[in-house]
Amino acid sequence: MVELVRAARAATMVPGAPVINDAAILVDQGVIKEVGTFTALSGAHSGHIHDLGDILLCPGLVNAHSHLELAHLKGKCPSGQGFVAWVEDLMGQPIFDLEPDQLDSAVRELKQTGTVMVGDIATRFAKEMAGMLEASGLFFAVFCEAIGETVPKKTFIPSGEFESGFMSVAGHALYTTHRDVLRAAKAETRDKGLPFSLHLAEHDEEVAIMMSAPSRFLDLLQARGRLLDFEPPGKSPVRQAADLGLLDETTLAVHCVKVGDDDIQTVRASGATVCLCPRSNEFIGVGRAPWEKWFASGTPLCLGTDSLASNTDLDLWNEALYLKENFNGELALMDLLAMVTRNPARILGAGEILGTLEPGKAAAFAQVPESLQALF
Predict the structure, then answer these.
(1) pLDDT over 90 for what percent of the chain?
(2) Does 151 share its domain with 37?
(3) Whether residue 84 sits in one domain with residue 213
(4) 54 and 68 share a domain?
(5) Would you say residue 161 has pLDDT above 80?
(6) Rounded distance, CA 24 to CA 242, Å?
């Protein structure tokens, strides 16, 4: 059925395009056919009109980084005590006990708060998570997480065909995934034309491990039989990732908290996209990424909620509110909206169907909260 959707204003997120006042979007079978003013489009339309009222409409949100496998740990992990304390507690939790009711609740929250696509990290249950997301109606990219020292004989990515998404591979981190595994994982995504994700420069312990400095976290891992033959590269995490060939225009580098000016320029020059997770970083207590420097550098940025083991909810609008309220300097509304629409859609391989409101794209919308608009 052809439908005309009206809103008082619409931010199409097409680069350079202004906000449309008295906006209308012509939709046919879930696909946008035309975008313009209500006056221009309503005259030739005789079908149903869905008037959304006095709102600011934007493309559906894309949560660039989550760990839905941990949905059942909401409210069960310590906050503000630092990374080592958080990990120690996490290791004592039933982290691999999937709970369908909690997963359903997490998906409902994503959908109810305007999210239409999620980039999800799956440590053990990639096919299950992809199947669950496919059934949910959300678009998705499920990253099978590579951890450890062993390169698989055939592929990192399980087989599977999906209508609303795909599976790829992510490296867990530079210190938990052997350099050969990271290189092989990145090579597979490059060969298959898929995005690659990596937790990068998240906390001080990661920097210490890379630089061969004393590390309580390294002691913890080695006590569990991990990283016994780890060779510190003597470089910053970003420099090591670059030297391993992990950073390019198809890489999503997540967190990027513990970085210097040289690191920022290295990432910017590589073409990689950075996913900031401000509330997760604050929850765990790892510090605050230099958001302002990342933004000023011109590095493509997006936002992620991370897991419910390190956040209070999966509402991407709350992530955007937190960033804006604590940002030092100018940050325009359109720049912030790009972080939750156009930028993550592109890096997650969905730029042809999501991220902007224009003909040919999916008719997936979100309403910009008045609380966020009031900050501009």
Answers:
(1) 89
(2) no
(3) yes
(4) no
(5) yes
(6) 45
Average pLDDT in the 204-230 region?
A: 87
Edge-first strand listing for the sheet containing 251-255? 61-66, 115-122, 139-146, 165-171, 196-200, 251-255, 273-276, 301-303
**Rounded distance between C-alpha atoms, residue 114 and residue 215, angstroms:** 40
User: 159 and 224: one domain?
Assistant: yes
Measured between alpha carbons, how far is 165 from 188 in angstroms, rounded to an integer?
A: 18
Domain count, the chain: 2
Query: Does the residue 178 lie in any domain?
Result: yes
pLDDT mean over 53-69: 98
Instruction: Assess whether 221 and 299 both reside in one domain.
Output: yes
Q: pTM value? A: 0.97
Burial class (CB in 10 A: 0-12, 13-18, 19+), 105: middle
Strand-pairing partners, residue 196, are: 169, 251
Amino acid 82: pLDDT? 94
What pLDDT does 17 receive? 95
Instruction: Encode pLDDT of 309-363 as tens digits.
Output: 999 999 999 999 999 999 999 999 999 999 999 999 999 999 999 999 999 999 9
Nearest to 102 by CA among 68, 72, 133: 72
Cβ 354 vs Cβ 299: under 8 Å = no
C-alpha distances in angstroms, 291 versus 118, 131, 233?
22, 35, 27
Token digits of residue 375: 């900050």
Residue 359 lies in a domain: no
Mean pLDDT of 277-298: 98
Domain membership of residue 361 (yes or no) is no
Q: Is the same domain home to 201 and 185?
A: yes
Residue 32 structure tokens: 């946008």
Whether residues 34 and 174 share a domain: the answer is no
20 is in which domain, residue-wise?
2-58+369-373
Mean pLDDT of the chain: 96
DSSP states of 108-177 as a string? Answer: HHHHHTTEEEEEEEESS-HHHHHHHHHHHT-EEEEEEEE-BS---SS-SS-----SSEEEEEEE--TTTB
48 and 84 share one domain: no
